[in-house]
Design brief:
alpha/beta, Aldehyde Dehydrogenase, Chain A, domain 1, Aldehyde Dehydrogenase, Chain A, domain 2, 2 domains, seven-stranded mixed β-sheet, six-stranded mixed β-sheet, 23 strands, about 40% helix, binds nicotinamide-adenine-dinucleotide
Length: about 500
């Protein structure tokens, strides 16, 4: 047996896993990844794979399909549960890997690991529920039923912002449903994905059932284009999601696309402003604003605008910015130079469009290691139609927009192409329920941070934030399985 992979304090090697074997890219190429909170540290060396590696992984998944499918959902659920236990056992190791390669602070990384364990446990239990229905038959002595069959080989393409939870919430239902899989994680976070696959392999999903190919766009495209891939579950940007959908359309490729957001917090005139400010700051600056559900717009009633902005600014300024090694840090780095540039460019365009910087607005370097640190930023007087109010920044940049009453607020909240999440702050139940009826998002929160839900609830967006069935809930079987019907006369 190969020695267990560990995330070291040393440079870790993030290899591919194909047909039950850990291996490098066929080309022999690799890439080094640095810690975004301290660029002096090289965290991992990962396989820099190409299309040929993707093809080998799909062939392995295809070869493993029949045996895995015949195992049945109960036994497969046991594999998922064993993987959950292994992730829980290696909690500290996972959290350290997430902090070092993604930049998340330790408490945020531990939160991601715990949520992942809960997700895996929930999915494992579904192995005893996955099935169809018996239905009334029109004819006597006839059994009418439906059943769910796995769709086949699936490709799972994931981003860097939840380097453990998102791969896990795709791998677990894929395998439980009887599909075999190729995981292609973000090239920015190869180590965490490798540790996850290590747990699944140890739990019994080796020999081609779960394959891992590190790399970037070329690997992703090769998976999407492969005729043996029956479905692609993707999380990432709208642009890449759309490209995957378009590429797969001629062969009716099944896609599940979880994409971006421009999420609003609507603060009405009767809201508890301290509670709203606490929740908005958690939603906007937690995980350095790099969540698809992160609050990036505040739409606030003119009557309470000044009082709310004062509270937001005070809370943002109190956040200590630092790397994961600083136990007092409350805002970590963003993941890459590209992300930092997007934040700075977002602020530049916002001010050019008439917004003012209430606090933050720039990169922080003083007293910090060499890393991608962005100051928590609050922008005011943001125009609802401006770039910063319409497009995802994906960093700790919060835009405040003023509205005149609930009607105007709802119109502004809905006035973007995205529909991932939203939060509403009011003491008036009928206004809250009105918002539930009328805000066009997948996930709504009232008087709480606009991020996250529970592992058994659908993770879903509306409009351009989502295409295909939800993740993280029983709805996920609508992606990984096909419904069949049968009528049996006896
Ligand atoms: P991205 O779209 O750049 O990349 C996502 C993944 O797709 C990566 O693994 C990447 O290598 C791969 N990829 C890139 N081009 C490809 C192509 N042409 N074909 C196939 N695969 C390709 O996104 P990112 O920068 O990694 O992540 C940030 C984005 O993810 C943000 O837009 C964010 O909102 C979104 N996100 C959405 C959710 C959600 O649940 N809706 C959750 C987290 C992140």
């Amino acid at each position: 047996m190969e020695p267990r992979l560990t995330a070291g304090p040393r440079l870790a090697e993030a290899r591919n896993h194909v047909a039950g074997r850990w291996c490098g890219a066929a080309s022999g190429r690799s890439r080094d990844n640095r810690n975004p909170g301290d660029l002096a540290e090289t965290v991992s060396r990962s396989a820099d794979s190409a299309a040929a590696d993707a093809l080998a992984a799909v062939a392995a998944a295809r070869a493993a399909l029949a045996a895995w499918r015949s195992l049945g959902p109960v036994r497969r659920g046991e594999v998922v549960l064993r993987a959950a236990r292994l992730v829980a056992e290696r909690r500290a190791e996972f959290a350290a890997a997430i902090t070092r390669e993604q930049g998340k602070l330790p408490h945020e990384a531990l939160g991601e690991v715990d949520r992942t364990v809960a997700l895996l446990e929930f999915t494992a239990g579904e192995g005893r529920r996955l099935g169809g229905a018996t239905l009334p038959a029109d004819d006597p002595r006839t059994l009418a039923l439906t059943r769910r069959d796995p769709i086949g080989v699936v490709a799972l393409i994931t981003p860097w912002n939840f380097p453990l939870a998102i791969p896990a919430w795709k791998v677990a239902p894929a395998l439980l449903s009887g599909c075999t899989a190729v995981l292609k994680p973000s090239p920015l976070t190869p180590l965490t994905a490798t540790l996850l696959v290590d747990c699944f392999v140890e739990a019994g999903a080796g020999h081609g059932v779960l394959n891992l190919v590190h790399g970037g766009r070329e690997v992703g495209e090769a998976l999407v284009d492969h005729p043996d891939v029956a479905g692609v579950s993707f999380t990432g940007s709208v642009e890449v999601g759309r490209a995957i959908h378009v590429a797969g359309a001629p062969r009716f490729l099944r896609t599940q696309l979880e994409m971006g957001g421009k999420n609003a917090a609507l603060v009405l005139a009767d809201a508890d402003l301290d509670r709203a400010a606490d929740a908005i700051v958690a939603g906007a600056f937690g995980q350095a604003g790099q969540r698809c559900s992160a609050t990036s717009r505040v739409v606030v009633d003119r009557a309470v605008h000044d009082a709310l902005v004062r509270r937001l600014a005070a809370r943002a300024e109190a956040l200590r910015v630092g790397p994961g090694t600083d136990p007092d840090a409350r805002l970590g780095p963003v993941v890459s130079a590209e992300r930092l540039h997007a934040c700075l460019e977002g602020v530049r365009r916002a001010t050019a469009d008439g917004a003012t910087v209430v606090t933050g607005g720039g990169r922080l370097t003083e007293g910090l290691p060499d890393g991608y640190f962005m100051a928590p930023t609050v922008l005011d007087l943001v125009r609802p139609d401006s770039h910063v109010a319409q497009e995802e920044i994906f960093g700790p940049v919060l835009s405040v927009i003023t509205c005149d009453g609930p009607e105007d607020g709802l119109r502004i909240v809905n006035g973007v192409r995205y529909g991932m999440a939203a939060a509403v702050f009011t003491r008036d139940t009928s206004l809250a329920l009105d918002a539930l009826d009328r805000i066009d998002v997948g996930m709504l929160h009232v008087n709480r941070p606009g991020v996250g839900a529970y592992p058994h609830m659908p993770h879903i967006g509306a409009k351009e934030s989502q295409y295909g069935p939800a993740e993280c809930s029983p709805q996920v079987w609508d992606f990984y399985t096909e419904l069949r019907s049968a009528c049996i006369s006896y």
